[in-house]
Amino acid sequence: MAPYESESAGRRKATRYVVPVAVVGVAAATIGLVPALADSGNPDLPKLSAQQLIEKIAKSDVQRMSGTVKISTDLGLPSLGGMAGGFTPGAGGSSDGADGKAGSSADPQSKLMELASGTHTLRVATDGPDRHKLSVLDNAAEYSVIHNGDEVWAYDSASNEAYHSKDAAAAGDRAEKHSKGETPKGVPATPKELADEVLKASGKTTSISVEGTSRVAGRDAYKLLVKPKQAGSTVGGITVSVDAKTGVPLKFTLTPAGGGKAVVDAGFTKVDFAKPAASTFDFTPPKGTKVTEGDDLKAQDKSHAPKDLPKDLPKDLPKGMPKELKDAQGGGMDDMKVIGEGWTSIAELKLPGGQGLPTGGSGSGDVPPEAQKFMDALGDHVTGKFGSGTVFSTRLVNALITDDGKVYAGAVTKDALVKAANAAQ
Fold first, then answer.
1. Which domains does the chain have, with CATH numbers?
2. For residue range 52-64, what is the model confidence (pLDDT) as tens digits?
3. Which are the contacts of 301, defined by CB distance < 8 A and separation ≥ 6?
4. Other CB atoms closer than 10 Å to residue 29's CB: what's the count?
């Protein structure tokens, strides 16, 4: 789907317990990498090396396709139930805007977080760089995100709410670069360059190989296996099934180092490479729909930003981050360091205010009871040279939050996090 941005005036409260939410967010982002489904049969295809298969993926110029995708995700998280809306910014319409009004239940930023657990069926369609549609199907409802040119619509049939945003400048920039065949600076421009870069990176920390063939959504495919060479990663391996004819990835399965069923198994049950009908990307809100304008929410956020700001704010703020937000959060991600490399790399950063997580005790009220229950279910108290802290665990991403407000996070084991925290002292 097309990139989508949304801001919430409740972000400052959310930073108090952002790390557990971020753990779920990483999983949601992982789901979006490539689609997948179970194999059926092993077709007899010409032999290809890993480099040849990577080149085949890079050469793929498919821009029009549609199909049905099934996604199953098992991060080992406790059931979210209705809790996500209690502490995820914008979730379930519970997020307050700058004027105290509730946000939209159709906001994609929070709605698509539901893909981070359970099994879901989706319909997808794409026609070039500026037309995409994704629909999440439920037993009695449907949620869709439609990107058509410079407009993005999201509609939740269960609540009869819609979310709308326009970004004409970004759409024009995408179209211009696409028409010129431009690629971002530093990105390999040819299939051979891409393959060389991937294989060069794999030499030290990663093993890449072709592990036979499969049938996915009725199509012949090669299986590309990517595995860490390093010990300490929670990732066991990643298998990508690549369409033998078009080079399009049809299947993505991520298995954990600890064994058991896949953490992510997502993919096509049906796929069609014909041009979708233009009407696929048309959307008009049904009569009576509550429409939230995302641009209006952004304007409200800016109007409620702190007025008395220091005059000597740093000039090298992350691109797109308002200075007001930077000041309010006390530095945030600018303090992040990366420990190690490859699959066992660990991000180290500081929580705003330099303090550990608040509690949901009867006197504090800093954390909603539902959120505290979720955090307690994930948390595991640990100690070391660094002092003490809590490790929040999933089957894929783990995060250590120390009592003095430092965070160590990565797709690594709990022992690796504690070791990194000790070494940082």
1. 11-281 (2.50.20.10), 330-423 (3.30.310)
2. 999 999 888 899 9
3. 7, 8, 9, 97, 98
4. 11
* β-bridge pairing 161-166 and 290-293: parallel
Helices (H), 4-61: 11-14, 18-31, 50-59
Question: 147-154, long-range: CB within 8 Å, 24+ apart, which pairs?
Answer: 147/1, 147/2, 147/4, 147/281, 148/281, 148/282, 148/283, 152/2, 152/4, 152/108, 152/294, 153/283, 153/285, 154/104, 154/106, 154/107, 154/108, 154/111
- Asked if residues 402 and 418 have their Cβ atoms less than 8 Å apart, the reply is no
- pLDDT tens by residue, 141-163: 899 999 999 999 999 999 999 99
The average pLDDT across 21-45 equals 48
Half-sphere exposure in the Cβ direction for 161 (13 Å, CA): 16
CA distances from 259 to 149, 199, 240 (A): 43, 26, 18
In whole angstroms, how large is the CA radius of gyration of the chain?
22
Structural contact between residues 171 and 2, judged by C-beta atoms closer than 8 angstroms: no
Tell me the sheet residues that pair with 64.
Answer: 127
Place of tokens 């929040």: 392
Question: Three-state SS for 297?
Answer: helix
**Cα 147 to chain centroid, rounded:** 18
C-beta separation of 373 from 20 below 8 A: no
Looking at the DSSP bridge assignments, the partners of residue 155 are: 144, 162
The pair phi, psi for residue 228, each rounded to 5°, is -70, 145
Closest listed residue to residue 103, CA positions, set 111, 112, 92, 113: 92
- Kindly tell me the sign of the dihedral angle through the C-alpha atoms of 291, 297, 298, 303: positive
Task: Give the separation between CA 82 and CA 101, rounded to whole angstroms.
Answer: 20
Count CA atoms closer than 13 A to 102's CA, side-chain side: 12
Torsion over CA: 34, 285, 178, 245 (sign): positive
